[in-house]
Amino acid sequence: MNASLSLLHPYPFEKLNQLFKDVSPANMPLIPLSIGEPKHPAPAFVQQALLENFQHLSTYPNSKGLPELRQSIAAWLTRRFQLSEISAEEHVLPVSGTREGIFSFVQALINRDEAPYVVMPNPFYQIYEGAALLAGAKPYFVNCTQENGYLGDFDAVPAEVWEKTALLFVCTPGNPTGAVLSKDDFKKLIALSDKYNFVIASDECYSELWFEQAPVGLLEVCAEMGRHDYKNCVVFHSLSKRSNLPGMRSGFIAGDATLLAPYLKYRTYHGAALPVQHQIASIAAWNDESHVEENRVQYRAKFDLFQNELGHLLPFKKPDAGFYYWLNVEDDEAFAKMLMEKAHIKVLPGRYLSRDTETGNPGAGHVRMALVADLAQCERVVERLKAIL
Question: Cis bond leading into 10, ω under 30°?
């Protein structure tokens, strides 16, 4: 087996299962708030599109995807991020969800003979680290703390690290923190990319779950700067959170055509093409915004519920965007065990999403609480928390 497999950490939910193995939960139905799996209903018109296209179960999908899908994605990017120049032919490539796309993109990008750095936020989506390790790169963690607004201090990264960096991951809105990068933040990172010649990969799969203001995107900033070639910049988007379709595994990568062309070649061998019926259903999803706004309305109601009913009991801070609370607690593991024992509510200790660094583990003392359950279940969460707090 590949020796690099030994470098991988247990996935956070494996650690969570170990934490709870000796816990006797309260005698009431489990309410899981640990996994970022949307539970709002999938759009009916997307389900209908799948039903009407089952004949494509007999069709091999093309790695590049249907031209109509790439065009619908390009049109959505143009509307959402005010892009004046984006080519469905050169700048867009469908992927089987952001997890698969991110992982495979890193494998295609990294020259393992150089053993470069992949810089990433800490805490982070675990695929960033796993993809880097299996590609022969070295993760470099930028701690996202309350002191830096959970955005990370990129000015503190040494020049010698940037000089050996092949790829920078950012996640905006952040998982798990909900923090959003500004245009100025992106411009600073683009300037660093120009200086040190590394690629920026912006994971924006939570970009449509916002409250007051739509988050800015990396390609949007590139366009504003007149960088219509999106040099060394790519973004990842998905229908999982935006459209409540995590099981359809439909997303895309968009950006620098000089990166996407060799990445497409990799994908023709990698073999993770999106099924045709899923592509057709995805076109319907990217072309519609009404269901996305309704999704936001439901999340706003749940966050308002928690803020109004529990804000005096726990330090709930509404995120900039996304569907996670990144809650400050004294001991994240003890807090998670307490909720399981007394209320049968499952949350994820923050230390499981982070790595230890010289200045500590920035996830310790936090728990991630995903408001993915429907409003009725969230009301039950509120009742149980009031009873035990």
Answer: no
